[in-house]
Specification:
- The protein is mainly beta.
- The chain has 2 domains: 1-30, no CATH class; 33-114, Immunoglobulins (Immunoglobulin-like).
- The protein is 0% helix and 48% strand.
- The protein is built from no helices and 10 strands.
- It has strands at residues 2-3, 7-12, 25-30, 32-40, 51-56, 63-66, 72-79, 82-89, 99-104, 113-114.
- Strands 6-5-8-9 form a 4-stranded antiparallel sheet, with no helix packed on it. Strands 1-2-3 form a 3-stranded antiparallel sheet, with no helix packed on it. The protein has a 3-stranded mixed sheet with strand order 7-4-10, with no helix packed on it.
- The radius of gyration is 19 Å and the shape is elongated.
- The protein starts with a strand and ends with a strand.
């Protein structure tokens, strides 16, 4: 396998039933990926300034970002194949399920959080 900063290149040579191979297949496997989502109030309106923290289960320093003026957020450069925990906090809103754990196997979209009714 060849490696670069952001991906792993793997070459496979499939064999027929006689053990012969006349072709090879090259695939690229991302070693880093992103997660993104939306923070909204109970009515679906985006929440600006929500604090989001992502950390892995190995104790690496957390990554921190804030939702933009429309409630969207994004984390880039997360290692794939790792288990992460994401937490959302905001001073004016309460989130019933404000933390989630997940294993990142590739780019993940739709990591959405919705606040409870005030």
């Amino acid at each position: 396998m060849e490696k670069s900063d952001s991906e792993t290149v793997q070459t496979f040579a499939p064999q027929d039933s006689y053990g012969k191979s006349d072709t090879s297949i090259k695939t690229e496997l991302d070693s880093v990926a992103s997660i993104s989502g939306h923070i909204s109030d109970a009515y679906g309106r985006g929440i600006r300034g929500a604090l989001l923290v992502v950390f892995d289960t190995h104790g690496s320093p957390p990554m921190i970002t804030m939702s933009n003026m429309f409630g969207f957020f994004r984390f880039d450069g997360l290692a794939t194949g790792e288990e992460y925990i994401i937490t959302v906090l905001h001073g004016k809103y309460l989130f019933f399920n404000n933390s989630r754990s997940f294993t990142l196997n590739g780019a993940m979209t739709g990591m959405n959080f919705q606040a409870e009714e005030p």
